[in-house]
Amino acid sequence: MTLQKDPENNETRSLHALADFTGRRALEIGCGEGRLTWRYARSTRLTVGIDPDQDSLRAAMQDRPADLLGKAFFARLSALHLPFQKETFDIAVLAWSL
Amino acid sequence: MVHALNEIYRVLAPAGTLIDLRPLMEGSPVEVVSEGQTYPAGVVNQLPEDIANDEAANQSIEKAAGQGWFTLERSDFFPFSYYWDSPDEMQAYVEEQWADFVTIHESVWKNARSFWAAAGTKGRLRVQVKMMIARWIVVKGD
Question: What is the CATH number of domain A15-94?
Answer without folding.
Answer: 3.40.50.150
